[in-house]
Specification:
Strand order of the largest sheet: 2-3-1-4-5
Number of strands: 10
Strand content: 5-15%
Structural class: alpha/beta
Distance between the termini: 32 Å
Length: 297
């Protein structure tokens, strides 16, 4: 297993849990605190530093930004890429939370915290935003209430779901039912991160990565439902196919990926590359959703 992400609002017992996990698992602790918009490129690279314990990661910029600042500091597209990488690397997420009045009391005793988390209304809003993230996440996750939950329960949970990671540069489920395979174009991003179709800073534009993200999401083809995505360029596709457990359905995104799958002796369906669709059918993003639905039936 690559590691553990510990998330939660101030006053929830997060720091104490991180220390206990460090002492029991002997993993290094990485504190992820970034002002304003986080550097997603750096965050993706950090995930390869495992095994590690992350003290905050992908939820805090969304929850704190939405509740206490000018809005979420990661887009749904950013979260899609980060969650896909976390899932593929076998991370477990622990969500620390307890009743608001207890957290409020804890925060008022701590001198180096925002004044906002020392007041009931903003702290309640923060907790509600975290709870929505928990409810919609597809990652392996566990709620830790330090007033009700024994630390041994957390350790048992982490150990129970320890597993090997998917092959390098795969996003999504490590044992998928549906495997999407792309080509090298648009896979490395403008800042050199080898994550399929993710390019930081394009979240407000319908480019190849955001088009694919939208289509997969609208089609219900999410990571937790047994979907994975990877690149085909300079990759032993037969080895990846075997490591993923020989997925039931393989879908090539474009002719180049389809040709590489054919050479590897892997049967699959082929659909238009998202970059092609974005260029020539820009006015019909919903059509790409239907294309992916049809290919995975």
């Amino acid at each position: 297993m690559s590691g553990v992400v510990v998330e939660g609002p101030d006053g929830s017992g997060k720091t104490s849990l991180v220390r206990e996990l460090r002492n029991r698992l002997h993993y290094p602790v990485i504190h992820v605190v970034q002002p304003k918009r986080p550097n997603v490129t750096q965050m993706l690279q950090l995930l390869d530093c495992g095994p590690a314990i992350f003290d905050r990661f992908q939820w805090s910029p969304i929850a704190y930004g939405d509740a206490l600042r000018d809005g979420p500091e990661l887009s749904s597209y950013d979260l899609w890429a980060l969650d896909g990488y976390l899932m593929s690397r076998g991370y477990v997420l622990l969500f620390c939370v307890t009743d608001v009045l207890t957290m409020l009391e804890n925060n008022r005793k701590a001198p180096q915290l925002w004044e906002a988390v020392k007041n009931y209304a903003p702290l309640s809003k923060l907790v509600a935003r975290y709870s929505r993230l928990y409810e919609t996440s597809e990652l392996r996750r566990f709620v830790f209430d330090y007033q009700k939950t024994e630390t041994e329960e957390v350790i048992s949970y982490v150990n129970a779901f320890a597993r090997e990671a998917a092959p390098e540069h795969v996003l999504g489920h490590p044992r998928p039912k549906i495997w999407f395979v792309g080509d090298e174009r648009a896979d490395k991003g403008s800042k050199g991160v080898h994550v399929p179709f993710y390019d930081e800073g394009i979240s407000d534009k319908l480019l190849s990565g955001t088009l694919l993200h939208r289509a997969l999401t609208d089609a219900g083809l999410t990571w937790g439902r047994g979907v994975a995505l990877s690149n085909s360029a300079n990759v032993d596709l037969r080895a990846v196919y075997s490591a993923l457990g020989e997925p039931e359905r393989v879908v090539a995104l474009g002719a180049a990926a389809n040709g590489r799958l054919h050479k590897a002796g892997i049967d699959g369906r082929v659909v238009a590359h998202p970059q092609w669709w974005r260029r020539f059918k820009y006015s019909d993003p919903d059509g790409y959703t239907e294309l992916l639905k049809e290919a995975t039936r």
